[in-house]
Amino acid sequence: MNSKPLIKLFRTNDKYYMYDTNKNTILNISNKQYNSLENYMKDDIDHYIDSEEINEFYKEGFLSSNRVKDIESPYNGVLPSYLDSNVGMIILQVTQQCNFRCEYCVYSGNYLNRTHSSKKMDISMAFKGIDFLINHSRNLSKIDVSFYGGEPLLEFDFIKQCIDYAEKKAEGKKVTFYMTTNGSLLTDEVVEFLYKHDVMLTISLDGPKEIHDKHRKFAFNNCGTFDKVIKNVMNIEKKFPQYINNILFNVVIDTQNDFSCIDKFFLDYESIKDIDMISGVISGNNIKSIIEMNEDYYLKVEYELFRIFYYLLRKHNTKNCSRIVIERYSQILKLSEELMPQKMLSEKAHPSGPCIPGAQRLFMNVDGFFYPCERVSETSELMQIGHIDTGFDIKKVTSIFNIGKLNEDDCKNCWAIRLCGVCAGALDMDTDEKEFSKKKREECCKNVKASLEEKFKNYCFLKEFGHSFDKNEEMTVFND
User: Fold this and answer.
1) Position 14 in a domain
2) CA distance between the termini of the chain
3) Following DSSP, what letter does each residue of 240-292 receive, concatenated?
4) How many other C-beta atoms lie within 10 A of the C-beta of residue 468?
5) Phi, psi of 248 (to 5 degrees)
6) How would you label 197-215 residue by residue, b for 16+ Cβ within 10 Å and e otherwise?
7) Angle 52-59/31-42 helices, nearest 10 degrees?
């Protein structure tokens, strides 16, 4: 048993800190305390630090060597009953066909996943999926139905039938509809129907024409798609101005492109600048080739993050700050909410990363197979968690939910166990043994801890300069 305290030491430019995992608390400590603890943690010999300053921490309950003894979710026993009554969303794979051929798409052939095909979901299969959601959401008053592809609007009549069916069968529940689309098929007829049924729309848009068209091209002629998508967005703004509030842009960023050019586009382009957006770099998960990173891109991102910090600390409007990088601050804000003092880690626990597979974003493909969400590989049998005709495979759900068992000893001694973000969907499958890759999880753990330490530093930096992380104050600063 490791008798060393379960802590993480880190520092900003001027100050020294300790994150105590058992307490889930960050403490500002002195240079002397930092050095003493640092030397102690490096020392191979386990012994009690006989220091007056350090002893004060022990008296307050800090520096405990308490560790989780069994890496297992305490909710394993209730998974069947939970999934029987708390499924909140179903994502229907309307079709595996798409009228685009995007080079970075997970279905492009460049990833360990299926490729585009002519397969589409039968309407009876979709109705069974909607029934499954309704029957397995008895504890919920609100449910979500989402349409995914390929490009779902290739099957517009199918979607209309699904929405009509769900609205009639929901039995008093509030149903919200979502769709992810490339934006090329948003005719007046389509938009009028989506507007009437209050469908939340995620449109893929990667930046200005020269950048968007680099990867996102029509399948039939290999030409860029920017002009068509922007024309449709502008038409919605003109004819259905209220529906703009239901639109969200999904921005996939190639770091080889100029960050400033992309950032300026979403800040200044008239028909775009007031529409909400989310962003992320091209996924390296299960990709067949190595993605080259552009140092200049990340330097510009760090500079924009500094600008956001400056405006926040001066309580100025952040409206003109990077809309892409502001998401980094949102992650720090989330961390501030998670850093609530806790009791000692229990004997049985699991890293915090995995959601309950199937409860939040149940994905059903055209053949009726269930997956935890739309982001996992459909070619992985490990990620198949059931079928519409047989229900959930609780054994597979439990395996994914307890992915920490893969590196159990590492998890027991990990300072980040409370704030871990490792998801089974990010792990490559070992194709020889048909198991999740332990090596891949070790790499993910390393990246998660590095990212979390950076968030710690930024959080403490802002606190040092008086930032309060008050939500009401944030809204004033962001929207003033």
Assistant:
1) yes
2) 54
3) -GGGGGGEEEEEEE-TTS-HHHHHHHHHH-TTTTTSEEEEEEPP-TTBSSPPP
4) 12
5) -130, 130
6) bebbbbbbbbbbeebbbbb
7) 80
Element (H, E) at 179: strand 174-181
Give CA–CA dist 354/370, Å, rounded: 17
Q: How many residues does the chain have?
A: 480
Domain count of the chain?
Answer: 1
Distance CA 321, CA 329 (A): 11
Nearest C-alpha neighbor of 214 from the set 103, 109, 120, 324? 103
In 146-176, which positions are buried (b, 16+ CB within 10 angstroms) versus exposed (e)? bbbbbbbbbbbebbeebbebbeeebeeeebe
Does 38 map to a domain? yes
Could you tell me which residues come within 8 angstroms of residue 350 by beta carbon, excluding any fewer than 6 positions away? 71, 72, 73, 74, 401, 402, 404, 411
Rg of the chain, C-alpha, whole Å = 24
Nearest to 204 by CA among 304, 292, 275: 275
Question: pTM value?
Answer: 0.93
The answer to whether 394 and 355 are in contact (CB under 8 A) is: no
User: What is the rounded distance in angstroms from the CA atom of residue 139 to the CA atom of residue 381?
Assistant: 30
Structural element, H or E, at residue 89: strand 89-93
- What are the phi and psi torsion angles at 362 (to 5°)? -60, 120
Any domain includes 30: yes
* Helices (H), ranges, 359-470: 394-401, 408-412, 438-464
* pLDDT of 339 above 80: yes
Rounded CA-CA distance 479/85 in Å is 39
Kindly state the tokens that stand for 417. 């166990």
Amino acid sitting at position 165:
Y
pLDDT, mean of residues 305-333: 93
Left, alpha or beta for 9 (phi > 0: left; psi -120 to 50: alpha)? beta
**Chain centroid to CA 27:** 28
When mean pLDDT is compared across 160-169, 219-228, 358-367, 373-382, the lowest value belongs to: 373-382
Range of the domain at 14: 1-66
Question: What is the rounded distance in angstroms from the CA atom of residue 230 to the CA atom of residue 317?
Answer: 28
pLDDT at 361: 96
Most confident of 95-109, 242-256, 315-329, 436-450: 242-256
The answer to whether position 382 is within a domain reads no
Give the pLDDT of residue 120. Answer: 97
Nearest to 204 by CA among 223, 230, 222: 230
| Non-local CB neighbours of 51 within 8 Å, separated by 6+ positions | 36
Record the tokens describing residue 281, joined without a space.
């770099």
